[in-house]
Amino acid sequence: MLTLDLEVDYSLIGIHCAEEDYRLAYFINKYLKFNLKKHEYSLDFKNSEAAYPLFEYKDEPHFTNYYLINNKFVHHTNNQIQPGLFDNQISTVSYLIPEKKKIDFFLKIEGCSDFEDIQNIILKLNAIKHIITSYSIDPYSLKSKDHLIF
To answer: How far apart are CA 52 and CA 108, in angstroms?
Structure first.
């Protein structure tokens, strides 16, 4: 049996943050001097209703691309069976990377593999008061790392 293992050519930072994705992108832009913009498409997969919003910043002078990606997708459905005083919504949560359910967002960095640069980004992220914590993740440790290939 022939298996093909793709080489990972990006760095990955996990971010714990209770803010909405557009607000987090704003704070990252403000404090890290990025220019993250919402991508016209979200990450989605065949046979799935989940779509993960994606923000992108291409730093062309440094040949580096940054992607801010939601890890969670909440799908709300109305339950029409029991009418009542309160909305009867049923919510299901899907994760882009299911083995990292506690992470709210990922910052994928293509073109920058320098350890000190990544650590500097993490220090700046952790200085943002709206971010609980952020840290580097080894992409090779992820079972679902193919979800981050786009």
So the answer is: 14
Sign of CA dihedral 6, 11, 13, 19: negative
How far is it, in rounded angstroms, from Cα 133 to Cα 71?
15
DSSP characters over 59-91: EGGGTEEEEEEESEEEEEEE--SS--SS--EEE
Cβ atoms < 10 Å from Cβ of 97: 21
Low-confidence stretches of the chain (pLDDT beneath 50): 2-4
Q: Count CA atoms closer than 13 A to 67's CA, side-chain side.
A: 21
- d(C-alpha 106, C-alpha 56), whole Å: 12
Overall pTM > 0.85: no
